[in-house]
Each structure stands twice: as C-alpha cells, then as structure tokens.
From TrEMBL:
Highest taxon in the source lineage: Bacteria
InterPro entries linked to this entry: CU044_5270-like (IPR047789)
Protein name: Tat pathway signal protein
Length: 325
C-alpha cells in the first residue's frame, strides 16, 4: 500500500472507519489536487509540494467526511497543421493500444536490470522538457536535474521547468506518489490485475477490477501514468504497469506524436479520463521502446496553455546530493 493511502487507514485508530462515499471523495480529492498541481506547474507551490499538501487534505477528508473537488478544464485542441510537432491532439486510428502496451511490457522485461537502492541514497535523474506555448508557438527547452532521497528522510534537490526546489525531509504523515521508499515500491504487485486495485483503492486492496466504476478506471489511468514517470522501479513493476494500462477501458493509440527529441511515435491516451486530456505516453511504433511523455498545462493566470514533451535522458543511484554518474 502506498504512503499516502496508508494515511487514510491509519490516521486515527480510535475513529470510526471511513464510509465508502468518504473514501471515494478522499481519493478523488487527492487525485484532482495532483492534477491541478501538474497543470499549474508555474505556480509558487511546486507540483510535488502540492502533492504533499494534497495528502494532508485527504487526511482532513477522512476526519470530516467532506471534500471540495478541484477541477480544471482541459486545453482546447489545435488543428492538424501542428500535429507533427506534438502541439495538437492527433486523430485516432485503428492502431491497437493493447498491442503497443503489451509490446512495451515485453521489451522492458527483456531489458530492465535489477536495482536495489539503499534508503540513505538518492535517485539521480535528468529530464529534458520541450515546452511550446500554444498561442504563440514559442518554444523553450528545460533540462531538469533531480536528486530524490530514496526514503524521504533527507532533503531532496529537484527542478521544475528550470526552477531549483529544495524539498525538506518528509514529516510523519506525509507521502508522495509514487512511493519514494524502495520497500514501499517493492510491495506493489507485479501482477497487473492486482496492481490496479492496490493503487486505486483507499483502505482495501481486495476489490476486483470487475467491480470498478468509470471513476475507478480514471483513477487507475492517472496513478499508473504517475508511476511510470518515476525513473527507477523494482524489477517487474514497470512491465506490470504497462500491462495494467492495457486493461483500462477506453485507452487508445494515436499515431504521429513526436517526443521531445523529435522522434515520431505512437501516443497512448485515455481520452475519456478527466486526468487524460492531451496526455500521452509515447512509444516507438516498431520496437515499442518507450520514448517519453506529452502533457498539457495551463498557466497560473489561466490565459496561456503549454504543450510539454519530455523524456528522461539518464538516471543513476548515487550516494550524495549533486553527485552525477
């Protein structure tokens, strides 16, 4: 069970158990807050800091049984003229998303290498983000470098669109998704049909996906996408996440989506999801190699929309902050 979801189970041993509606509202509050932080990543509060605040808000929901949902409208789609650059939403095709995702799972399973970082180490990663303002076409490229404490007990150095952010050690009751602690990640199932209920259900992992509502599947799509953004996962977990995405109803393949390196691939999206508009995982159409992400965000003022293309160019496990491989 993930750090933030554990909070809802353990927040107060003497309190009455959460009702199903309260549990659902808490989960959706968390996910909507994360989505809002993603889209407004130029705001004062960084995305992952907002995620910590969202976790605290979920605990408040557990106590009060009430929640205020935060919703954000998606950006308007562009025309086909900017399809190749990735700044428009391409048309759908008959390409099978299931084939692409299962192919990516098989490829990853063949090439992944087992790793086991210590709690006192850091995950170093460098991500290239190419951001295009939809209105003007202006392009900026960022090189974000991160050093994340493996267990959250030390401060981390992260970057968001070129801004340096020093994150304090996590306090008791704080958590992030995906879990930073390696032991938490290793608890996540590598069976895709078991992985989905565990990451989407607060307080219980016993439900079957056959009982899922549309909202449950939307949550699964969002949580799996966030998991796949983490540069280092225990062996078998990344292939399981790809296979789990293939189980999400409505997931579709979109041809002609370019990544931040200019490579043309197949985008995988969930257009019906409130968290999925304009968001793609991009794969090579032949080898199913994962190429990167396409996201959309809106400025804090709400008057500008940006298309973000990103990919991780390198990662490593290091012993010290600012140490590079």
């Amino acid at each position: 069970m993930t750090d933030e979801l554990e909070l809802l189970r353990d927040w107060d041993a003497d309190a009455a158990p959460l009702t199903d509606p309260a549990r659902a509202e808490a989960r959706h509050r968390l996910l909507n807050t994360i989505a809002r932080a993603q889209r407004h990543s130029d705001a004062v509060i960084g995305r992952r800091r907002a995620l910590r605040l969202a976790t605290a808000a979920v605990v408040a929901v557990a106590v009060t049984g009430t929640a205020v949902l935060i919703t954000e409208g998606g950006a308007d789609g562009g025309d086909r003229s900017d399809r190749v650059s990735g700044t428009a939403t391409p048309r759908m095709s008959n390409v099978s998303a299931v084939t692409v995702l299962n192919g990516a799972a098989a490829r990853t399973g063949r090439h992944e290498r087992p790793v086991a970082p210590r709690d006192d180490q850091y995950i170093y990663s460098k991500r290239i983000i190419k951001e295009t303002e939809r209105g003007t076409g202006a392009v900026k490229t960022y090189e974000d470098v991160n050093w994340d404490s493996v267990d959250g007990s030390k401060r981390s150095l992260t970057m968001e669109l070129g801004r340096v952010i020093w994150e304090k050690p996590m306090k008791k009751g704080e958590g992030v998704w995906p879990p930073r602690k390696w032991s938490e990640l290793k608890r996540l199932p590598t069976d895709p049909e078991k992985l989905i209920p565990v990451i989407t259900d607060i307080g219980s992992s016993s439900r079957s996906t056959s009982d899922f509502t549309a909202q449950d599947w939307f949550d699964a799509y969002f949580m799996l996408g966030e998991l796949l953004k983490w540069p280092v996962l225990p062996q078998g977990l990344r292939p399981a996440a790809y296979k789990a995405l293939a189980l999400v109803p409505g997931v579709e393949a979109v041809p002609g989506v370019k990544d931040s390196a200019g490579r043309t691939g197949v985008g995988i999206s969930c257009p019906e999801s409130p968290f999925g508009k304009g968001k793609y995982l991009i794969f090579d159409p032949g080898s199913y190699e994962f190429l990167g992400f396409r996201d959309e965000r809106t400025s804090a003022s709400g008057d500008k929309t940006y298309i973000q293309l990103s990919h991780v160019v390198e990662w490593a496990i290091v012993d010290r902050l600012k140490e590079r491989p």
